């Protein structure tokens, strides 16, 4: 058997549930380790390694489903989307989408949202640092530069639109508190997840703040445009509200200067 | 016969659970070995600590994804990232495993054994040369633990390692625990394996623990080093002279002080072995 054929047979063995095509007959065991046991060690290690990585990246989904159901879901996931990246860090990249494809909609929607939230933490965790704006940068800004100030998201910032109480569930599991049960929110909310120095942080936004922040960071509003937008709601208090929020966003480490 | 490569002394595998203690305590560790893939990221805690630790200790890069014996083309994107990481941390050397870890299209994330055939030998040797071309340095390859062997083998594992290093110019990372695990599983003599390797090619040693199931042994790296592996380690140093030695732990991480104690044991046993070697010289 050529090397490549032997390796592909080995691969099929690892990915399948049983020996296919007599691959075991190409192998030799040892004095007290038979071929089937030897192959089972590889087979089990492959499954266990992938499961362990998914448990690490999606601890709340795991907690919600329990050991057996989570293991079953992961087994189906890696069967459908075998790992394609050299690093296991990316194994869970398609998990949210898979949950949507694999489970019935009523079950999949909150679970997929939770998976998306957990994946967002992994993305924030090792994203590039970027050049976050600091309050000292703002203090150094010339008065005439303020109206035209433009910002964008720092590279670690992830936005997850939550229609369910996913964040509450995530917090409860992290705190090892009682599982709160899944509930649809009265109003969807944006949850931001980002890394500040080496620590991942998160925060839910009220709709008005989410609108203002998205206006600046996504749509490229200048600071004066932000004030004008806020004037609709806050009238003469708009500049104060704009400064208050901007200070908060900068203190949080969410923003960097938008290149002119 | 003495090895002709610089000896870094006694090192530990760098693992995230110990980052903070390493920075705070500046422990008596001569060098650290990093798992390269853990640092092929764009930012965050891992790179932060890597840079801080690289300022204080020599580093060696040890990969798990090269798949040097795989049936696929070498992943040039991976190699490019590996080279960039090497440029960043300036490791004393770069190692991976004599194995394959990627199949036709899928990553298998395991250190799978190769048949030790002439076909494998020329396949791997050509790829080693390709990798060395990209990295601009010799590749160091580690023997893996295995649980099955191919019926088609033309060579023993040590004959294959000899021939590969001769053909490709690669150096060897001798994992003494892996030799022990495979010797138990396949029924060969571990010392025969070690004494038949080319001494001048051995750049580094690994020490680790395993799970002993009686009829077979599984390489888990989650236990202290066992007595037979300590014995082999001493025999190896008596035979080779000083070689950079690394204690690996990948799971069931003990308190850092315990791991340092185990490293001190390696240092003590190693010093004894080298003293006996001097007496015999």
TrEMBL record, chain A:
Gene3D superfamilies: DUF2063 (1.10.150.690). Pfam families: DUF2063. It comes from Pseudomonas proteolytica. This is DUF2063 domain-containing protein. Residues 6-99 form the Putative DNA-binding domain.
TrEMBL record, chain B:
Pfam families: MbnB_TglH_ChrH. Belongs to the UPF0276 family. InterPro entries: MbnB/TglH/ChrH (IPR007801), Xyl_isomerase-like_sf (IPR036237). Coiled coil: none annotated. This is UPF0276 protein GIW75_00705. It comes from the Bacteria. HAMAP family: UPF0276. It comes from Pseudomonas proteolytica.
């Amino acid at each position: 058997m050529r090397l490549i054929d032997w390796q592909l047979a080995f691969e099929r063995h690892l990915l399948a549930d049983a020996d296919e095509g007599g691959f075991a007959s190409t192998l030799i065991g040892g004095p007290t380790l038979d071929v089937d046991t030897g192959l089972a060690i590889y087979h089990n290690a492959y499954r266990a390694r992938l499961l362990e990585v998914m448990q690490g990246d999606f601890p709340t989904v795991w907690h919600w489903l329990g050991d057996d159901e989570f293991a079953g879901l992961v087994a189906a996931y890696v069967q459908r989307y075998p790992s394609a990246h050299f690093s296991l860090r990316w194994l869970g990249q398609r998990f949210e989408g898979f949950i949507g494809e694999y489970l019935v909609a009523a079950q999949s929607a909150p679970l997929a949202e939770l998976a998306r939230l957990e994946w967002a933490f992994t993305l924030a965790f090792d994203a590039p640092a970027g050049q976050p704006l600091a309050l000292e940068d703002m203090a150094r800004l010339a008065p005439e530069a303020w109206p035209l100030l433009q910002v964008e998201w720092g590279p670690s910032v992830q936005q997850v639109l939550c229609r369910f109480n996913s964040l509450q569930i995530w917090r409860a599991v992290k705190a090892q508190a009682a599982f709160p049960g899944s509930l649809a929110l009265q109003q969807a909310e944006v949850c931001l997840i980002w890394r500040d120095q080496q620590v991942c942080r998160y925060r839910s936004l009220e709709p008005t703040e989410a609108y203002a922040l998205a206006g600046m960071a996504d749509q490229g509003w200048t600071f004066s445009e932000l004030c004008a937008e806020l004037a609709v709601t806050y009238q003469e208090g708009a500049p104060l509200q704009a400064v208050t929020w901007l200070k908060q966003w900068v203190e949080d480490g969410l923003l960097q200067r938008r290149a002119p | 016969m003495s090895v002709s490569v610089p000896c870094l002394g006694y090192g530990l595998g760098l693992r995230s659970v110990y980052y903070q203690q390493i920075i705070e305590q500046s422990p008596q560790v001569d060098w650290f070995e990093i798992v390269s893939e853990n640092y092929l990221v764009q930012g965050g805690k891992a790179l932060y600590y890597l840079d801080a630790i690289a300022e204080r200790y020599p580093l060696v890069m040890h990969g798990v994804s090269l798949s040097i014996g795989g049936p696929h083309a070498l992943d040039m994107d991976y190699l490019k990232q590996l080279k960039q990481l090497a440029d960043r941390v300036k490791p004393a050397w770069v190692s991976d495993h004599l194995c394959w870890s990627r199949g036709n299209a899928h990553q298998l994330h395991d250190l799978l054994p190769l048949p030790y055939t002439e076909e494998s030998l020329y396949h791997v040797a050509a790829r080693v040369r390709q990798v060395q071309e990209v990295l601009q340095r010799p590749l160091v390859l580690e023997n893996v633990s295995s649980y099955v062997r191919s019926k088609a083998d033309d060579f023993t594992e040590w004959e294959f390692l000899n021939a590969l290093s001769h053909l490709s110019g690669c150096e060897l990372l001798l994992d003494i625990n892996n030799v022990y695990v495979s010797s138990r599983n396949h029924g060969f003599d571990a010392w025969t394996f070690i004494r038949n390797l080319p001494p001048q090619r051995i750049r580094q040693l690994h020490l680790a623990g395993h799970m002993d199931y009686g009829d077979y042994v599984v390489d888990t790296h989650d236990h202290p080093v066992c007595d037979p592996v300590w014995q082999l380690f001493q025999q190896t140093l008596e035979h080779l002279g000083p070689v950079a030695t690394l204690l690996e732990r990948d799971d069931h991480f003990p308190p850092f002080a315990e791991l340092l104690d185990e490293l001190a044991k390696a240092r003590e046993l190693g010093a004894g072995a080298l003293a006996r070697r001097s007496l015999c010289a």
